[in-house]
Amino acid sequence: MPRPKGSKNKKTVSVSIQENVEDKIAAVEAEIAELGTQLKAKKAELKQLVKAKAESDRIAAERKAEEDKKAILDAVEKSGKSLEEILEMLGK
């Protein structure tokens, strides 16, 4: 009697192959967990570096503003004009 349509010889998966796959799954899950903790540590480090850079930029901006202010005041003194005359010139 012939086989029914759609019937195939099915291969059985051996137990050792299943165990090997389960071991690999467990290893990958452990690696993912380890990478997750490394990611958290790197994010914390990045946050600190960004904060330090922002503080450095703020200090540099304050120094630049102070230098600009001093340069303007020196220029006013060298011009020999009064503050009112300079403001009048700027107002026009």
Key phrases:
92 residues; mainly alpha; 2 helices; 0% strand; rod-shaped
Please give the structural blueprint.
Elements lengths: L14 H65 L3 H9 L1
Descriptive report:
- The protein has 92 residues and is an all-alpha fold.
- The protein has one domain.
- It is 80% helix and 0% strand.
- It has 2 helices and no strands.
- The longest helix is centred in the middle third of the chain and has 65 residues.
- The mean pLDDT is 87.
Question: What's the short version?
Answer:
Helices cover about 80% and strands about 0% of the residues.
Total helices: the number is 2
Distance between the termini: 110 Å
Beta fraction: under 5%
Mean pLDDT: 87
Kindly give the count of domains: 1
Helix content: over 70%
The structural class is mainly alpha
Which sheet architecture does the biggest sheet show? none
E-strand count: 0
Shape: rod-shaped
In terms of quaternary structure, what is this?
A: single chain
What's the gyration radius in Å? Answer: 37 Å
- H and E string: HH
The stretches of 5 or more residues where confidence is low (pLDDT under 50) are none
